[in-house]
Specification:
By secondary structure, the chain is an alpha+beta fold. It contains nine helices and four strands, in the order αααβααβαβαβαα. Helix content is 34%, strand content 15%. It has a four-stranded antiparallel sheet with strand order 1-2-4-3, sandwiched between helices. It is globular and about 45 Å long.
């Protein structure tokens, strides 16, 4: 199954155990093509996201889509300049929100985790469809909330750039040097049996 790795992934990533290639093929490009994403694909990745598991099946995630020039311009006003530099080419931007209270009106302890799981499902389905994604934490949350009229009970989590991979030569030099799939820490550094390791 590892024969199905993308060329740039095969050169940079190797799993310690056998897993489906989609987990390695998903990586966060900064070089996006301006080619439009069909609604069938856009809503297909959102369909995948909405099947993510959540605490008590509350499904606290919400997505606001920006795909017209006017909508995307509104998003760019609250995205940090460093991220604007490359994400302005992406044909679709999405803001992922999570509802901080549950249906009973009490604080939800897992809303952010649940929204993150939905993001993961979205990213994998996008990869399966030949699309690229990049999640950004670098944006002004208060400005996003105001610009998009988001109620106070929802917390902005990330902005997601979605589209087709573009030419890395369009990137600034600093971003071009980062346009490779990154690696991961070995499992031995993040997985512990029985208890947290002591110094």
């Amino acid at each position: 199954m590892m024969d199905n790795l993308l060329p740039e992934v095969a050169a940079a990533r190797k799993s310690e155990y056998g897993i489906d290639p989609i987990f390695l093929n998903r990586w966060s490009t900064r070089a996006f093509s301006s080619k439009a994403v069909k609604d069938e694909d856009l809503y297909g990745v959102l369909e995948a996201a909405h099947w993510a598991p959540s605490g008590s099946n509350e499904q606290p995630w919400r997505f606001i889509i920006a795909k017209t020039p006017e909508q995307r311009e509104t998003f760019l006003q609250f995205i940090s300049p460093f991220n604007q530099e490359w994400c302005k080419e992406a044909p679709v931007l999405l803001l992922l929100l999570s509802r901080k209270v549950n249906e009973a009106g009490k604080a939800s302890p897992s809303h952010a985790l649940d929204a993150g799981t939905a993001w993961g499902y979205l990213a994998l389905e996008a990869t399966r469809r030949g699309l690229s994604t990049h999640a950004m934490g670098g944006f002004d949350r208060a400005a996003a909330q105001s610009a998009l009229q988001v109620p106070e009970e929802y917390e902005p989590q990330i902005v997601i750039a979605l589209g087709y991979r573009g030419d890395e030569n369009q990137l600034s030099e600093r971003n071009r040097s980062r346009e490779i799939p990154n690696t991961r820490k070995p499992l031995s550094e993040i997985v512990f049996e029985g208890r947290f390791p002591q110094p």
